[in-house]
Amino acid sequence: MRSTGQLENLQGNHACAMGAIAAGCRFFAGYPITPSSEVAEKMSLELPKVDGIFIQMEDEIASMGAILGASMGGAMAMTATSGPGFSLKQENLGYAAGAEIPCVVVNVMRGGPSTGMPTRPSQGDIMQSRWGTHGDHAVIVLAPSSVKEIYEETIRAFRLTETLRVPVVIIYDEVIGHLVETVELPVPESIESIERKWATCPKDDFKPYGETKDMVPAMARPGDGYRAHTTGLTTSQDGFPTQDPAKVESIIRRRLGKLEHHAATIESFEEIDCQDADIVLVAIGISARAAGRAQQQAREKGLKVGLFRPITLWPFPVGAFRSATKTAKYIVVPEMNTGQLILEIDRLVTGTTRAIGINRIDGEAIDPAAILHQIEELS
Amino acid sequence: MDEKPVESFNIRDYLREDLFPHFLCPGCGHGIALRALLWAVHELNISNDKLAIVSGIGCSGRIGAYVDANTFHTTHGRPLTFATGLAMTRPDLKVIVITGDGDCLAIGGNHLIHACRRNLNMTCMMLNNEVYGMTGGQASPTTSETRYTTTSPTGSIEPVFNACDLAVAAGAGFVGREVTLQTPALKNLLRQAIDHDGFSFVEVISDCTEIFGRKNDLGDSPEMILSQKGSMRPDSYGNVVDEPFHPNHMKTGVFVETERPEYGAVYRRHIKSVQAGISGKGS
Question: Cβ contacts (< 8 Å) between A229 and chain B: which residues?
């Protein structure tokens, strides 16, 4: 991506909308909800300028359904929401996972459960973003932690969902969503175009969910003559429902297997000073920004502290995490919930390494000083 | 559109026969409704490739799969939402939603009223058989009072929805109702609906003989559909407010046919005005 060389002040939610449009998103359906509404507002303004469609639906469920309808019609499509809306979207998010419909869902995290604290930040949806819909399913979750990264990761979200046919969720907390930072955006033309794999084979040979080398079947564009069937029922390769155990298992395993097969493409993380670290901080979103500050301060004090920041949150970059924490005695996990990311870290740490959480659930962001204090306690 | 002679209608041109035997119970009215729909599609000269059938969950939701076209079997109550995204992005497709009384009026009720209000180009065919058949015969929003179902074991005591009243009140530009016995009339109604520019709503009075009929001693399928016809009044609707709804006094025919701006076209004009810099405040 080539930079425009121009600096501008941009809000996180607006960066999300701009990134989507730069990626080629031409359909957005949404429903007002704090603290994500600015994504919809920006889309309503910008999409018509590029022949795109913005529609405000009657509810969160409808906006999720609408983006799937648009995506099945061939458009790159997105919706944005926050906690209560994210819960409602899970039904059709599962449809997208099952029927392998490309889509991007943005979840700007606020305090929960239920209506919770609409204007206060939280990171309470880390597990919901992975396991929110029922049944075994593949989903990719990206967790940007700056305005510029929201822009870049939104583009990457479209690249991943369109090429892999796995729904992509972008999660960031309210602080990052409403943060205004000075960013230098790329020239839109310099962004590599994103193209879905459309069916071009002879009509009789087409299998909507056939086996392919890359495990991603080509999609039939309505009107191209393939007359495909799409359903939320479990299907065989021909796209029609089946309960044949052998067919069911192979198709579910292929869908889930895409994540592992394409792990190198999906995985993204940032690693700072981890090679010799006694303590590695692991965090996302605004907590990672605080952790980054604490990590710097700790190094200035001569303490061996590193930071590992999963940008692709799910699937968790396991290999990179293991290599980044090889020398670590402690892994400190600051997060704005009572301990969700740490469940994954606990699962991965071995031997005498210990994972310690720093948790804040009062609607305020974690202070770098609190993290530094914990580092000093452990040193 | 060019009209093909009726004689040339062969339903097999529109079916995925390799999926047969179909799953419908003997006597179910849904097959007749589907036949009428495809007959209308044929008369309007809509090609299979340009036809998009979007359905929800339940018996009504499953019949879309038998149509040899672009078929989308979506989630419970949500077909109108998927159809909205599809119709907005693909005005070249003929979008037809097949739904049922539970799918459309209970879990999907909110989507129906907003689809009527928005007036996007699509046809919604709601098959009303007064029951949740797929799940074993539970009461639906159209189950007549006193009827027995597995969740109204002593007879239903809830008032019913009149789907057409609802659609009219919500602003649908085209609203009509027909029984399956009158297949040619149903075909004509659906044809008018599909040809209508904007959102059109057709309620088909279908019969669930196997579950609902059996539970309520309504006889076999011919008996059921004959009694349905007998309880209908095939005249124009008049003022819906004057005639409080009762299922045994339902009317058939076209109730509303008005021209309202079609939302897809409205949006395309909106795009043009935005690009020409004629948009209002906030830009």
Answer: 16, 65, 71-73
Tens of pLDDT, residue by residue over A213-240, are 999 999 999 999 999 999 999 999 999 9
Do the chains contact at A67 and B85, CB–CB below 8 Å? Answer: yes
The gap between the terminal CA atoms of chain B, to the nearest Å, is: 40
Q: CB A69 to CB B75 under 8 A?
A: no
Of B78, B85, B283, the CB nearest to A70: B85
What is the domain extent for residue A333?
A: 271-378
| Mean pLDDT for the stretch of residues B203-225 | 94
Among candidates A312, A309, A285, A315, which has minimal Cα distance to A295? A309
**B124 interface with A at CB cutoff 8 Å:** no
Using an 8 Å Cβ cutoff, are B149 and B133 in contact? no
Three-state SS for A51? coil
| Number of domains chain A is built from | 3
Q: What is the CATH number of the domain that holds A68?
A: 3.40.50.970
Rounded Cα distance, A42 and A19, in Å: 11
Beta carbons within 10 angstroms of residue A75's beta carbon = 23
Does A198 reside within a domain?
A: no
Cβ contacts (< 8 Å) between A224 and chain B: which residues?
49
Answer whether B271 sits within 8 Å of A51, measured CB to CB.
yes
Domain B6-275 CATH assignment equals 3.40.50.10170: no
B119-176 tens-digit pLDDT = 999 999 999 999 999 999 999 999 998 999 999 999 999 988 899 999 999 999 999 9
- Residue pair B232/B189 in contact by the 8 Å Cβ criterion: no
Domain assignment present for A197: no
Contact B85 A49 (CB under 8 A): no
